Amino acid sequence: MLRNKIYKHLTFEILRIFFTILFAFTLIAWTVRAVNYLNLIIDDAHSISTYFVYSFLNISNIATKFIPISFLLALIIAIYRFKNQKEFLIIWSMGISKIHIVNLIIGISIVVVFLNLILSTYVTPYALNYSRVILKTSDLNQVSSAIKENDFTDTFKNVTFFIDKKDENNEFENIFIRDNSNSLTGLLNDETAKDKTITAKRGYIENDKLILFDGIIHSYNDATVTSLKFKKTEILIDLLQNRTIQQPKLRETKTETLILCLFGNERLLLNCPLDKIKGEVIETTLRRLVMPIYIILMTLVVCYTIFSKQEKEVNNLKRNFIFILGFLIILISEMFIRYTGKSELNAISYLMFPFIISPLVYLLLIYKSLREKMN
Fold this sequence. Notes:
Layout: H1 2-36, H2 39-42, H3 48-56, H4 59-84, H5 87-93, H6 98-137, H7 143-146, E1 159-166, E2 171-179, E3 195-206, E4 209-221, E5 224-236, H8 255-262, H9 274-289, H10 294-302, H11 312-336, H12 344-374
Antiparallel strand pairs: 1-2, 2-3, 3-4, 4-5
């Protein structure tokens, strides 16, 4: 009974530190990234609500990247806190062996691996894909803010704006507009026109309408050019679309789709056949399914600190060495995954490495535990 309470206490402390560090890292990174996303409002004319939803949906992607380093720091902090507060000494005096504590920490790491797998395999691709859908379907209700003074604005698909001046009331002077796709409706009532050019002396935007004064509309249809002068005209801009990429990227694609594409079902993924994107598909798939397993290897390495001596200088030296070694495992898993798409040998090596090295490291921990018992 008391042993179970000790196990629960150790588990709670490690997970508490882990989630605290993960939350802090994620919050800082998300705040920085959210500032970068402000161009969705400033440059791309999306609403504030779209900006906040899009930013929120990127949290899982950020958190997934910080899980390994957060768990590494949590283990180092927790283990040395237990050692400094003599909690481990009490545990050893109760007859609990060090390998049992190692097994407990490995069990906690497996839980973290499953959390990482769920986020990277299901939650993050869905959230990123849904964030793209939101951008594609959201209304562009800040068109006037997207149009810049003395600059060709091509924020909108197949439509280019140029204005000479823009005042604080968002009223424009000397306006030039090129429409290559009939996105601006209400012009000459000609739906067959291939492109249109509008010039006007002044104008402003009000209620999804571009109101222009003193200008000319040129409509091009094959060899025919039609011109119309106007004193005032209203042009509907509700069909304007931004230049958001319509096709989901690989990081936004379902994991099942990537796996099926690897095994030859090419119809499920645009740009499959794999002769062009096979390397990217392999890298993305291994990043989601295999990279989290390196957390277990990192955990086994950190567990060596449980067996460290009590001398302060030796203890600090070993702690720093173990932290650097654990960090190197995270760094190597991130660096070498970029080469998995280069060849099948690289992919297989990356896949097998943690499954081969982790048992060896665990056997060394068992040997170290048995050796301490004998002494």
